[in-house]
Write a structure and sequence with these properties.
The protein is an alpha/beta fold and 446 residues long. It is 45% helix and 15% strand. 39% of the residues are buried.
Length: 446
């Protein structure tokens, strides 16, 4: 995955915003000419499109804001059927069958890990303005082609209470050893008077809340957002020196240090978040969506701050953080009206539609020409690390998933097991390597 510095990203957004300002000051003549050109283009395109989604929030917004009618204001001879599929599981099953039957919709959404799966059925959108103005699209290109334009950008944060840090005399950590030291100091300071205190709140009973560590840290070690997919081509991906081996040993050291309280396996995610909102925990790692959960439970968030999870061992190493593109809109090769379908993508990411939808959702913008200010609490992470490298997370593709299912490897469950008495990480990783190689051979994955 391409590495992008935070400063470069903000400079691009600023330049795009400045360009928009200049265009707006161009006078009524420029605006009228542009409008006339758009009208001519709209009048010349006609036909029917099927746009298939699974996102309930998007469907509600489409219904409430008459998306089809708004698109037809610009393209009066276009007809759009918005096809809503129950959920993402049913969606992928349907898309797989329809790809084989040459019946994919004109416009479809993909995830980072399905772009490669459908690459032979997606048109290159590299020449569209939507792709050019998207901050993430190029980083997810497949074989040099932009096959989908991500609708949003998802960030991961470490939330913390500033007043608890101050009372314990610790600073925001910028390295992994500093995180361990800060958590230990917090646990010692507050745990002395509160036996239920957790320096780091995690509901390990639910297993999935360990994902900021178990899922993302291997990609952050060397900035490889395709780590899971690269593993599918290796016989010993868990061996000494590999990114996942390095990451899991660091995680194991943290998980077994006592900074997650006396019983992390006895708490659900909701219970752990409640303890955090009550300031009976100082730190918790959650996605951008987690801020709403915290705000809903805390009396006030005046002392709430964020930082990105520091994975590097020293200040001399690059500081990296995870960003995920989501909902990659693409045009399929099965479309009978590909130019109209491309025009729909362009329109979706234009001022006629995208800014309104962006304001409707909590996720961050993926478009440099429509930047969305982060909540000030989350923006602290960027202020603290202005030159950090953005690692575009690619998720797990079909080959990895096939091997994972064959050997029943679940990184979230593995993280929970690290909290159990007598767990042997080295033996577990060696066993996973043996099973992994055997599964690759059995499945014929090269």
């Amino acid at each position: 995955m391409k590495k992008i510095s935070r400063r470069s990203f903000l400079q691009a957004a600023g330049a795009a915003a400045a360009a928009m300002g200049l265009a707006a000051c161009g006078g009524s003549g420029s605006s009228t000419a542009a409008s006339g050109a758009a009208g001519s283009a709209g009048a010349s395109l006609s036909g029917e499109l099927v746009f298939t989604i699974w996102d309930n929030n998007l469907m509600n917004y489409i219904d409430e804001n008459d998306m089809v009618g708004k698109f037809q204001e610009k393209y009066p001879d276009a007809e759009i059927e918005v096809e809503k599929i129950k959920d993402d599981t049913e969606y992928w099953n349907a898309m797989k069958m329809r790809a084989s039957a040459n019946q994919l919709p004109d416009v479809m959404f993909n995830k980072p890990f399905t772009l490669a799966r459908f690459k032979d059925y997606l048109l290159d959108l590299s020449d569209t303005e939507a792709a050019k103005n998207n901050s993430l699209a190029e980083g997810y290109a497949v074989d040099g082609k932009i096959l989908g334009v991500p609708m949003t950008a998802g960030y991961e944060y470490v939330y913390y209470w500033k007043d608890l840090f101050q009372e314990a005399g610790v600073e925001v950590p910028t390295t992994w050893p500093a995180l361990q030291e800060a958590a230990s100091a917090l646990q010692a300071h507050f745990g002395a008077s509160d036996p239920d205190f957790m320096a780091i709140a995690m509901g390990a009973k639910d297993e999935w809340p360990d994902y900021p560590f178990m899922e993302f840290m291997p990609s952050l070690i060397n900035g490889n957002g395709q780590n899971w997919n690269d593993m599918a081509a290796q016989d010993a991906p868990f061996a000494d020196g590999t990114d996942i081996n390095v990451a899991y040993h660091r995680i194991y050291d943290l998980f077994t240090s006592g900074v997650f309280g006396k019983d992390p396996l006895g708490l659900s995610k909701d219970q752990a978040t409640t303890l955090f909102t009550q300031k009976r925990a100082a730190i918790t790692a959650l996605g951008d969506w987690g801020l709403q959960d915290i705000m809903n439970g805390a009396e006030n968030v005046d002392q709430l701050g964020t930082f990105y999870l520091p994975v590097r061992m020293t200040e001399d190493e690059p500081f990296r953080y995870i960003v995920q593109g989501d909902s990659f809109m693409g045009v399929t090769t099965h479309s009978k009206n590909p130019e109209l379908a491309k025009a729909f993508v362009e329109w979706f990411y234009s001022e006629d539609w995208y800014p309104g939808y962006l304001a409707y959702i909590t996720s961050a913008s993926s478009m440099t020409n429509f930047p969305k200010e982060k909540d000030p609490i989350q923006a602290e992470s960027d202020t603290a690390q202005p030159d950090a490298e953005m690692v575009l997370y690619g998720g797990a593709g079909d080959d990895f998933t096939a091997i994972q299912n064959e050997i029943a490897f679940d990184y979230k469950k593995l993280g929970a097991q690290m909290f159990t008495e007598g767990f042997d990480l080295d033996a577990t990783l060696a066993d996973l390597d043996a099973k992994w190689a055997a599964a690759r051979a059995k499945l014929g994955i090269q």
